[in-house]
């Protein structure tokens, strides 16, 4: 009976240790597949306060569960290996929290966006192509809100020229950026 309880606690501890990573990957996949073409991005930023808070919450919850004898964490016997394992766990926790922060911010930014539709004017200032496992096409705009970047499809990429002006109907994101409510309209003089 003790062996079954110990095995169950070990399985639970594995789930608890990797849960932030699994949540982060799920949220990132949802965000990447559903938000790419409608989002006007202000640029990448890291929120160290949120990452530290998520990491601390995860570590404290694991410590509480270990103290309550709900999970077992088997650490090596030698002090060097034990310290190395703990440092590795803390680093993993920060990486998982970073990914979770990105996934949460990306999705909450859209899910909690403003319902008010704004009309903004966008001027194309740059076009670029990102090569990697997939080829991504980006248009960089200048607006009253600063530089905004939009990922578009290959077929639309050629229709944008530097210096052109577009009118866009957008909702403000909860944290940052804008979400297109309808396709952009080119302003012709």
Would you mind describing this structure in some detail?
Keywords: Membrane, Transmembrane, Transmembrane helix. The chain crosses the membrane at residues 12-35, 47-68, 80-100. The chain is of the alpha+beta class and 189 residues long. It has four helices and seven strands, in the order H-E-H-H-E-E-E-H-E-E-E. The chain has helices at residues 2-35, 48-67, 79-111, 154-157; strands at 39-41, 117-130, 136-143, 146-152, 165-172, 178-180, 185-186. Strands 1-4-3-2-5-6 form a six-stranded antiparallel beta barrel. It is elongated and about 75 Å long. It starts with a helix and ends with a strand.
Q: Tally the beta strands.
A: 7
The average pLDDT score comes to 85
Q: Give the uncertain stretches in residue-range form.
A: none
Largest beta-sheet characterization: 6 strands, antiparallel, barrel
The CA-CA distance between the termini, in Å, is 81 Å
Give helix and strand order, one letter per element, not per position: HEHHEEEHEEE
What is the global morphology? elongated
Strand order of the largest sheet: 1-4-3-2-5-6
Helical stretch count?
4
Class by alpha and beta content: alpha+beta
| Percent in strands | 15-25%
Rg from Cα: 23 Å
What share of residues is helical?
40-55%
Transmembrane segments: 12-35, 47-68, 80-100
Keywords: Membrane, Transmembrane, Transmembrane helix
Compact description:
The protein is α+β, with helices and mostly antiparallel strands and 189 residues long. The protein contains four helices and seven strands. It starts with a helix and ends with a strand.
């Amino acid at each position: 009976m003790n062996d079954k309880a110990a095995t169950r606690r070990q399985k639970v501890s594995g789930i608890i240790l990797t849960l932030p990573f699994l949540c982060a990957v799920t949220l990132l996949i949802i965000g990447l597949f559903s938000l790419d073409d409608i989002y006007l991005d202000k640029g990448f930023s890291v929120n160290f306060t949120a990452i530290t808070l998520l990491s601390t919450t995860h570590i404290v919850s694991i410590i509480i569960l270990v103290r309550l004898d709900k999970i077992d964490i088997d650490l090596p016997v030698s002090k060097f290996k034990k310290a190395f394992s703990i440092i590795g766990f803390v680093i993993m926790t920060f990486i998982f929290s970073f990914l979770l922060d990105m996934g949460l911010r990306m999705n909450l930014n859209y899910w909690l966006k403003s319902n008010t539709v704004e009309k903004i004017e966008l001027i194309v200032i740059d076009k670029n192509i990102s090569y990697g496992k997939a080829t991504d096409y980006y248009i960089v705009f200048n607006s009253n809100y600063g530089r905004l970047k939009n990922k578009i499809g290959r077929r639309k990429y050629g229709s944008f020229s530097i210096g052109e002006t577009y009118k866009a109907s957008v909702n403000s994101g909860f944290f940052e950026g804008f979400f297109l409510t309808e396709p952009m309209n080119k302003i012709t003089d």
